[in-house]
Amino acid sequence: MALKSTIYKIDLNIADMDRHYYQQHNLTLAKHPSETDVRLMVRLLAFVLYADENLLFGNGLSDDDEPDLWQKDLTGAIQRWICVGLPEEREIRKACGRSKHVVQVLYGGRTADMWWAQNSKAVLKLDNVTIINLPDTEQLAAAAARGLSISFTIQDQQILVSYEGGSFEIEALRLKDVD
């Protein structure tokens, strides 16, 4: 018998002063049986960093041909392809051919640093890729709850996270950015 996804209801408030984006979102996220709380919350943070009315969660772990998040234009063309984790470099190249802008969000501390050391030379050659590293996701994972009310405030690329259990800052290092 296959395990079912766990459903998370998230009341999300975003105040992104860098992009002048101020919105409330009521999200329902499905946590894949093999997914950790860290990965779930990194997907949520990726949504926050690129929040837009057309940004949607994809099938991610359930479908190799879909990203974790994507944004399409009115014609169905993929404008932004966002994945979290440590993929093979060829997967990023493949996404570059399918989307105008690819965002790869790395996490995992030292493991992510090793991934970047191995793949940076090839990835830096790609024109339409942004690479973001989240060096410390421990507090973000601790905030995970099936019924969660959480706020993200972004100013000068500093991210303040507030929820019922307290507040903390999280650093998102941009290793490569699209101009």
Characterization of this structure:
- Helix content is 23%, strand content 42%.
- It has 179 residues and is an alpha/beta fold.
- The strands form 2 sheets. Strands 3-4-5-6-7-11 form a 6-stranded mixed sheet.
- The protein is globular.
- It has helices spanning 37-49, 89-98, 110-123, 138-142; strands at residues 6-16, 21-31, 55-57, 69-72, 78-84, 99-107, 129-134, 147-155, 158-163, 166-170, 173-176.
- InterPro entries: Restrct_endonuc-II-like, YaeQ, YaeQ_sf.
- This is YaeQ family protein.
- It holds the Pfam family YaeQ.
- What is the share of helical residues? 10-25%
What sort of overall outline do the alpha carbons produce when their principal axes are compared?
A: globular
| Strand residue percentage | 35-45%
Any idea what the radius of gyration is? 16 Å
Number of DSSP E strands: 11
Q: Largest beta sheet: what is the strand line-up?
A: 3-4-5-6-7-11
Helical run tally: 4
Q: Can you tell me the residue ranges where pLDDT is under 50 for at least 5 consecutive residues?
A: none
Mean pLDDT score: 93
SSE arrangement, N to C: EEHEEEHEHEHEEEE
Question: Span from first to last CA?
Answer: 47 Å
- Which structural class should the secondary elements be placed in? alpha/beta
- Describe the sheet with the most strands: 6 strands, mixed
Organism: Methylophilus flavus
Protein name: YaeQ family protein
